[in-house]
Amino acid sequence: MLPGDFQLQKYPRKKLALFGVLSIVGVFILGGTVLALVFVISSWLGRPVVFGFNDGPTQPIAFPHTVHVQDLELDCTFCHRNVTLGAAATIPAVGLCMTCHKTIGDGLPEVEKLRTVFEEGQPIDWIRVHRVPDHVQFAHEPHVRFFSERGGISPSATCSTCHGDVGSMVVVEQVRSLKMGDCVDCHRDNGAPTDCTTCHY
Predict the structure, then answer these.
(1) Does 104 reside within a domain?
(2) Burial, 144: exposed, middle or buried (Cβ in 10 Å; 0-12, 13-18, 19+)?
(3) In terms of domains, do 175 and 83 share one?
(4) What is the pLDDT along the chain (201 residues), one digit of tens a residue?
(5) Cα angle, residue 192 at apex, residues 85 and 161 outer, rounded to 5°
(6) Are 36 and 79 in a shared domain?
(7) Does 17 share its domain with 69?
(8) Do 78 and 45 reside in the same domain of the chain?
(9) Inter-axis angle of helices 94-101 and 109-119, to 10 degrees?
(10) Which of 64, 125, 169, 188 is most buried, judging by how many CB atoms fall within 10 Å of its CB?
(11) 114, part of any domain
């Protein structure tokens, strides 16, 4: 045996440094891929479990449904005026909020934010809470009409079928998955159409 036959090859420092950088980048890519897969799979099965998506988002102006619904007994349709008329429930414009808050709420920080936004002529950039997948067509009006006529209940009581008891939420959060299985089960339970073209058109 000749000396040096079994010695490990020494790599230049540049190659070692490059290998180290590529290893670190690879770990970050792998971690990002795993995180993305967890997000996508959990979103598909229900609500996303990462990034705090199970909690309601912090809105630009805190809107206490508890005060407006429980204390003042406002109906959902007072603010969400289009829910019995069209596809979207609509979020109230700043002007509608100001019909009351021009005179009510002096000194309350969130009301003062609202007044500032109104004076500046700006909209409120509310963060969406409830959402069905983009390839699904969902119209509020026929759902509200169906449950109101069938059960003889108010539109507000109908809203809680999908949105939960929003009136008791300090921060609104999504309580149902609003995925296909959830919708199809509800349609089957209530004798509504389950044909694909009902929601995908």
Answers:
(1) no
(2) buried
(3) yes
(4) 556 566 667 777 788 788 888 999 999 999 999 988 887 776 666 555 555 445 788 999 999 999 999 999 998 989 998 999 999 988 889 999 999 999 999 999 999 999 999 999 999 999 888 888 788 899 999 999 988 888 777 777 888 889 999 999 989 998 888 888 889 999 999 899 999 999 998
(5) 60
(6) no
(7) no
(8) no
(9) 120
(10) 169
(11) no
Please state the domain count of the chain.
2
Q: Which pLDDT does position 44 carry in this prediction?
A: 65
Residue 129 has phi, psi (to 5 degrees) of -105, -50
Question: In terms of residue numbers, what domain contains 27?
Answer: 13-54
Count of alpha carbons within 13 angstroms of residue 126, beta-carbon side: 14
Q: Which pLDDT score is estimated for 52? A: 47
* One domain, residues 83 and 174: yes
Match 């969406």 to its residue by tokens: 128
86 and 17 in a common domain: no
DSSP 68: I
CA angle 81, 82, 88 (to 5 degrees): 130
Residue where the block lists tokens 């990462």:
50
Cα(46)–Cα(178) distance, integer angstroms: 8
